[in-house]
Design goal:
The chain has 265 residues and is an alpha+beta fold. It folds into 2 domains: 31-86, no CATH class; 105-264, no CATH class. It has 4 helices and 16 strands. The chain starts with 6 loop residues before the first helix and ends with a strand. The relative contact order is 0.07. This is Type II secretion system protein N. InterPro entries: T2SS_protein-GspN.
């Protein structure tokens, strides 16, 4: 014959199970209904306030916000994208799938998968394209806030993967940026030209800058060390445009005759 626990023992067990249920329910609610402002705060902290979500609404999993690019917490330069960003996050096995809807800049949602790897984070971007105003570069501070570029930036990606580990950034795949009809406050020529930047990932990611057309001729190449880019290039003026571009050439690099040598990193 089974012996039933005393009433006070059954009551204690029931109370404990009720507490466990309440805690689990609270955890589930916190997970699925965490406010979007938590994501905004985490992103601002992770980027040193260089990428900010303003007036975030909704939840971490489904939300919207304005987007501001800034030169940092103490930076004086910032620029806002027109319209709003809407995002949808969906947990999958060991990762999170994200869809980013940006009517201002992408004809289709930008999609990626984020997963933790070896003490860091890996972002796999689905192949896609987007168009951005070149003016947003001014929000990143020097030298862009001096150049104040205008024009359009068309970005396309192929099998692009980014791996963050502390201050290290690894790259795989390819990203191509077409900068079209670029002008600057430092020159009266409008536009100065159109350019292409190609980034190829691998053990030592590389960057190649070429001029598609225009009066300001730019070329160069670079290597990504994992924490910094080493870039060597040069700028010059097309025949007949030397006077109009002289001031700009003096600023963007070290003059060597008709050329301006550009060294970064």
């Amino acid at each position: 014959m089974a012996v039933l626990p005393a009433p006070h023992v059954r009551s204690a067990f029931g109370w404990r199970w009720a507490m466990v249920g309440a805690l689990l329910g609270g955890l589930v609610a916190l997970t699925f209904y965490a406010p979007a402002r938590w994501l905004a705060a985490a992103l601002a902290q992770a980027t040193g306030d260089r990428l900010q979500l303003i007036n975030a609404r909704g939840t971490v999993w489904n939300g919207s916000a304005g987007v501001v690019f800034s030169s940092g917490a103490r930076g004086a330069e910032s620029i806002s994208l027109p319209g709003t960003l809407a995002w949808t996050l969906r947990p999958v096995w060991g990762a999170v799938d994200a869809a980013l809807t940006l009517p201002c800049c992408a004809p289709q949602p930008l999609r990626l998968r984020a997963r933790p790897v070896g003490g860091g984070m890996e972002l796999d971007w689905r192949d896609g394209s987007s168009r951005w105003p070149a003016a947003l570069l001014s929000g990143f501070g020097a030298p862009w806030n001096t150049l104040k570029p205008e024009g359009t930036l068309d970005l396309s990606t192929q099998a692009l993967r980014m791996e963050f580990k502390g201050r290290q950034l690894g790259l795989a795949g390819r990203a191509t940026l077409d900068a079209t009809d670029i002008s600057s406050s430092l020159s009266t020529l409008r536009p100065m030209g159109s350019y292409r930047i190609t980034v190829d990932g691998g053990p030592t990611p590389s960057l190649l800058l070429t001029t598609r057309d225009g009066s300001l001729l730019l070329s160069g190449s670079g290597r990504w060390s994992g924490t910094a880019m080493r870039f060597d290039g040069e700028a010059s003026a097309a025949p007949g445009r030397e006077d109009a571009l002289s001031n700009l050439l003096n600023i963007i690099g070290r003059r060597q005759g008709a050329r301006s040598l550009i060294t970064l990193g």
